[in-house]
């Protein structure tokens, strides 16, 4: 088992970065940490890294988000392509702006109801049980309503967008390779997104509808307009 600890950090940082100072001081000053693709199974105690702003842990084998309660300064968290099945233990990350969780095993977008600064949420391509779609907890959506600008939900078997209408600050929606079929369902939410500038629906059944792009642009107040 490979656990993310200060010992693991010590093995992976270059000596030139810390030869002039005590390693504990180095950890306390550290703002960026990249331990992607290190076969890490679990997040251990790295609370000395209290000034961490950006944490890269993608392409590992992490199954649980944990031990990040100290990390109130983190703004960017990269956890894509792990084994995470539940979004949890993030309530202390009050300054979190960008959260990357693509390629995990998450079935419900939840656990974000205490976070009101998130601008980007990337949760594409979850390994879902056969026939199931990605679900959204209303409390988390309400919390994200005023801050979320970029949402990537591609490749998650999603067949309707109505519950996302609360995301009033949305400017870019990536929803490619889903199961969106009905133009009426889409038209019903487009006018709820007054700041929407970009939308990717490639690979959805709706793309085969006659003049679907034209209908979307006509319905939206902002898409296709300079």
Automatic annotation (TrEMBL):
Pfam families: LRR_8 (PF13855). Keywords: Leucine-rich repeat, Repeat. SMART domains: LRR_SD22. This is Protein phosphatase 1 regulatory subunit 42. The lineage of its organism: Eukaryota, Metazoa, Chordata, Craniata, Vertebrata.
